[in-house]
Amino acid sequence: MPIATVNPATGETLRTYEAMGEEEIERRLQLAEATFRTYRTTGFEERARLLRQAADLLEEDLEELGALVTTEMGKPVAQSRAEAAKCAKAMRWYADRAASLLADEEPDAADVKDSGASRALVRYRPLGPVLAVMPWNFPLWQVMRFAAPALMAGNVGLLKHASNVPGTALYLEDLFHRAGFPEGCFQTLLIGSAAVDGVLRDERVRAATLTGSEPAGRAVAATSGEMIKKTVLELGGSDPFVVMPSADLDRAVRVAVTARTQNAGQSCIAAKRFIVHEAVYGAFTERFAEGMRALRMGDPMDEETDVGPLSSEQGVRDLEELVQDAVRGGARVLCGGERPGGPGWYYPPTVLAGITRDMRVHREEAFGPVATVYRADDLDEAVLIANDSDFGLSSNVWTQDDAEVDRFVRDLEAGGVYVNGMTASHPAFPFGGVKRSGYGRELSGHGIREFCNITTVWHGA
């Protein structure tokens, strides 16, 4: 895949970039290692000052940055600006809290005495250069939820961004440079996917984090395992959205539409499988299809647009194949289902009912605005359908019954359970999944500690 900015709304290639050669990659690896030796000794106060400065600069660039993101990957421009603002919020969150999140911990005095020590503590120390392999769907936020905690912990970052958002990748490197971070603290590697393995094998790279597809995660995990390097993987998701009879149906429908179509449905944590109790199945499905049908699809630079184009021609083809396979298998199309004519990589909000286990869309992640609706006879069947997936990133449940909430929280196989609300990442809460959705956690105190050397310090009596 060429490294290029291609406008998804028109298919026009706006700019292409040369991939960095071996000499430039080596220069940047040397710089990362050298910078880490000194940056790791800076205090939390200095790191926080720099990160807050970066947040201020990002907010000053909001309009320009929103347009850049929309031009490169197609999300409605209002969503691009909101993503940038969310990054600034996360940067300040970590600037304010990193010192306490990584403060030395003192074990219980009785345990210290029992170990024969006069004193003991646990200290969090940075690991070194961390390689981040990041996707295009949230090209700012996905990077920042790694970069902010990693930099506050004293690590340095090497970003291999998706090849269709090179402008955003270079902006992020420049942002940290303008904020005053030492040269080498955060560098963008303009390289193709084939070059990742070589960088990951380099001994100067101490760890890696990847957000992306399952095949990409397998490749990074395999190499990291061979090299014995720490990894965090956030891969695909096919999140269930369960609606029970006691749910506020009007609100559940409104949130369901947003949860399925935000970012044109190109989100790992988007609700994708809508599992509805038979008592409210008819009412929910009718209103849901109506809400999806009413969305405005069009130019992502138009402030009134609800759903923009998908990021690539291949993405549209993949989605078409999933829908067509389901229809051949007997699924009913309640709305959408046909690609519109004209330029750009658009696919309409689509609702499919009558899904069976042998359809591809039941097993595979639909990365676009296609929703599948299932009927459940009772709570037990709802849990079974929800867990009948290789993925386990997050989940949504809609009920006013506390006993049902307890059951879902106990039994759903997912990294998050959102009750009467839409899954959304927030810097205060750990984010990540189970099963083929990956392992490790981003955000919160759990995220900042992922790339730390958790060190036991023991003093003899």
| Number of spatially distinct domains | 2
CATH topology of the largest domain: Aldehyde Dehydrogenase, Chain A, domain 1
Helix content: 40-55%
User: What is the H level of CATH, i.e. the homologous superfamily of the largest domain?
Assistant: Aldehyde Dehydrogenase, Chain A, domain 1
Keywords: NADP, Oxidoreductase
Protein name: NADP-dependent succinic semialdehyde dehydrogenase
Pfam family, one: Aldedh
Domain Aldehyde dehydrogenase: 3-457
Please give a handful of descriptors for the protein shown:
alpha/beta; 2 domains; Aldehyde Dehydrogenase, Chain A, domain 1; Ald_DH_N; aldehyde dehydrogenase [NAD(P)+] activity; Ald_DH_C; succinate-semialdehyde dehydrogenase (NAD+) activity; six-stranded mixed β-sheet; seven-stranded mixed β-sheet; Aldehyde Dehydrogenase, Chain A, domain 2; Ald_DH/histidinol_DH; about 450 residues
